[in-house]
Automatic annotation (TrEMBL):
Transmembrane segments: none annotated. Belongs to the CFA/CMAS family. InterPro entries: CFA/CMAS, CMAS, SAM-dependent_MTases_sf. Keywords: Lipid metabolism, Methyltransferase, S-adenosyl-L-methionine, Transferase. This is Class I SAM-dependent methyltransferase.
Length: 440
């Protein structure tokens, strides 16, 4: 016997549909068998006993998460809520499990009749969605109450959701640099801190910064680029971030390092910066948040901030192609609400269309995989303190997000491009040397 719903939404006994165990249902949905060990709360099992990965479904709520939101969103809900246990890997770095699953997991699409029979066999009541975990952002249609997508109000809320978790949490995960963007490793043996410092210095050299110049750093985070440019190159810097927590931490670091006479980390929207006449603009990790349709306005605004001959360095995650797509249900709800990615070609085209001359670009995707590996190692090393600070559910979100992103960079599903542009003067002079100085 199995359970179905009557008109009142209550379970009633169905004597005609044979019962299906969860393990049996999973096996029927897999092409080539279940590639991991699976154990469910109903006592059923599936998959090889000697698999290095063991997934335990602990309760009915977990099953309802999986059935009511098939794919990465349902899996994330069950995992974050503790309704699924993933054994054989540390929750701060489930990279090996994700590699195994992505390499071996093959679903087959059942016919509507087969799908309905499986659902009835397990119990139609399991299709009712439970309340999502507290770490989950509202769906996009509900976010309309906060304003249209990429309005100032809605962007501020999206940034708050991701970046205002806890400065202490970020210190433990990111390390002393407090830099939450792709590092650039000068050699394979470089540490994460060395690679972040090298990245900032590479940006400064591409922008050809010199003492007395003025730099605007949009989406400045905790002010790593602001402080590096002011300290190492003697420039005057304004950094701006939509995260109040980041701004407070970054400005305190500026003052602690004795840089307040030429550097500022400001809380606010980059669109509200009133100053202009900058010699250079750096945008490191902001473009992912602004929306592809806003690229023309974004690059036009930054162009207008520059003096003739001024340079702009845009550093952001991209797709491997130039199609415009969202970030997927899990990333959108748990990590980057309203995030949107496209390819480097779209970025270069838009920069050219608004009058910026593109002089150089490079892809650092392997560097981002190494960066994420370092962050996951930091999370594992500081796991107990991270859980005490933000809770186990949030810490697990970060572990699976960073490990999954590492795999995506390794497999060329996403990339990281730096694009260097210049604003030519009225005569078309880019004030650019015959060969790039940062390569010498």
């Amino acid at each position: 016997m199995t359970s179905t719903l009557n008109r009142a939404g209550q379970d009633r006994t169905d004597t005609t549909t044979p019962r299906v165990t969860i393990g049996e249902a999973l096996t029927r949905l897999m092409a080539g068998g279940v590639p991991f060990r699976f154990t469910a709360y109903d006592g059923s099992t599936a998959g090889p006993q000697d698999s290095p990965i063991h997934l335990r479904l602990l309760n009915e709520r977990g099953l309802s998460y999986l059935l009511s939101a098939p794919g990465d969103l349902g899996m994330a809900r069950a995992y974050v809520s503790g309704d699924i246990a993933l054994e054989g890997v540390h929750p701060g770095n489930p990279y090996d499990a994700l590699v195994h699953l992505q390499s071996n997991l093959r679903f087959k699409m059942p016919s509507p009749a087969e799908a309905f029979a499986l659902a009835r066999g397990i119990g139609l009541g399991k299709l009712l969605p439970p309340e999502p975990p507290p770490q989950e952002a509202l769906p996009r249609w509900r976010r309309l109450l906060e304003g249209f997508r990429h309005s100032k109000t809605r962007d501020a809320e999206a940034i708050h959701h991701h970046y205002d978790v806890s400065n202490r949490f970020y210190e433990m995960v990111l390390g002393p640099s407090m830099t939450y963007t792709c590092a650039c490793f000068p050699h394979e043996g470089a540490t994460l801190e060395e690679a972040q410092a090298f990245k900032y210095d590479l940006v400064c050299r591409k922008l050809d910064l010199k003492p007395g110049m003025r730099l605007l750093d949009v989406g400045c985070g905790w002010g790593g680029m602001v402080r590096h440019a002011a300290r190492e190159y003697g420039v005057e810097v304004i950094g701006v971030t939509l995260s109040k927590e980041q701004a407070a931490w970054g400005q305190a670091a500026v003052e602690r390092e004795g840089l307040a006479d030429r550097a500022e980390v400001r809380f606010g929207d980059y669109r509200e910066v009133s100053e202009s006449g900058f010699d250079a603009v750096s945008s490191i990790g902001l473009t992912e948040h602004i929306g592809v349709r806003n690229y023309p306005a974004y690059f036009s605004l930054l162009r207008d901030k520059l003096v003739p001959g001024g340079r702009i360095l845009n550093h952001c995650i991209t797709r491997a192609d130039n199609h415009v797509r969202g970030t997927g249900a899990f990333i959108d709800r748990y990590v980057f609400p309203d995030g949107e990615l496209t390819g480097s070609g779209r970025i270069i085209t838009t920069m050219q269309d608004v009058g910026l001359e593109v002089r150089h670009e490079e892809n650092l995707r392997e560097h981002y995989a190494l960066t994420l590996k370092g962050w996951c190692e930091n999370l594992v090393e500081n796991w107990d303190e991270c859980v005490a600070d933000v809770g186990e559910g949030t810490a697990k979100v970060w572990g699976i997000y960073m490990a999954g992103s590492r795999l995506a960079f390794e497999r060329n599903e996403i990339q990281l491009h730096q694009v260097l542009g210049v604003k030519p003067d009225e005569h078309g002079n880019a004030h650019f040397p015959l060969r790039p100085t940062w390569l010498s």
